[in-house]
User: Fold BTB/POZ domain-containing protein 10 from Papilio xuthus.
Amino acid sequence: MSDSQANGPEANGMLEQRRPFFYPDSSSDTEEYRRDTEERRKRLSKRNGPCIRGRMPPKNQSPNVPTPSTSTQEPPRNGQKNQLMDDRITLVVDNTRFVVDPAQFTAHPNTMLGRMFSSGIEFTHPNERGEYEVAEGISATVFRAILEYYRGGTIRCPPTVSVQELREACDYLLVPFDANTVRCQNLRGLLHELSNEGARRQFESFLERLILPLMVESAQRGDRECHVVVLLDDDAVDWDEQYPPQMGDEYSQTVLSTPLYRFFKYIENRDVAKQVMKERGLKKIRLGVEGYPTYKEKVRKRPGGRAEVIYNYVQRPFIHMSWEKEEAKSRHVDFQCFKSKSVTNLAEATADPVIELEPLRAREEEVPEPPAEGAAEDDAQ
Assistant:
């Protein structure tokens, strides 16, 4: 037996510092140590719940919920990968291919691409490669920006693309174009397009509520055109029945609407209104500002006893439109009203024109003769 075994823990001070050592004879110390250990385990088990696999549960986890395993979901097998790839489709836009998931389009059924891949009707057929050629006339840069709407709900206008081009592409693909869906660095161009959209909706309302009833009234009288002058709500029109103002040949109608008057204050709104009326099938559209008589100022007597009435004129916008192709023209031509200028005698048509020589001879006689040379020398002397 070595000295360390004979002397016990007193000979090895390092071992005594690392772990406690109890003699077999000291049974009281061993029982107290076991009792303290068991009580400590019971207190810990009551506080934190049961341990799993000898490890303490995390602090932020409820005691009755087991610790989740760190293993992730099984990766898809080869068959599942092929199935995911088969669900994707290829779109060809401006000779550029886009591999997308059709589920992104079906989530927006009101758009054109959503209708193409959600309904049973085939709007387009794939080519020999199984690719779909869509969005004809739209550049690949614009289409890539519009695809962001199906992924995140917003469209960021590229710096190389004008806002008008993006707007036209959104209208073609039936994608909403508003302040909630479009992000653009060019605020002037964005606000201009938003103003055009707001002006279109506003004028369509004006056309249905205010202008269309006047057009129907003109059509019921047998007219083929309508001339509407927009007045303010507080404009007073007081014409003299005996001396009405000279309005010309056109029979004008008036509508009292201050909002419509303010609408036509901008030239851009007039262009939008003209485009809307063209889309509704109207012809001969004219928009502008003209003077309109409101009330009589005074009556002045002219020589001969004829009265001249002076009216007060205000500058107000007007709209003129027609629903006929030919305005104020008859499609029937009466040839009896025109004198024929055709030559019926073939001999006269082939003959040379007659030249009158007598007037030429008369003009020759009137030309004075130049003076003689001798006379000129006498005058010089």
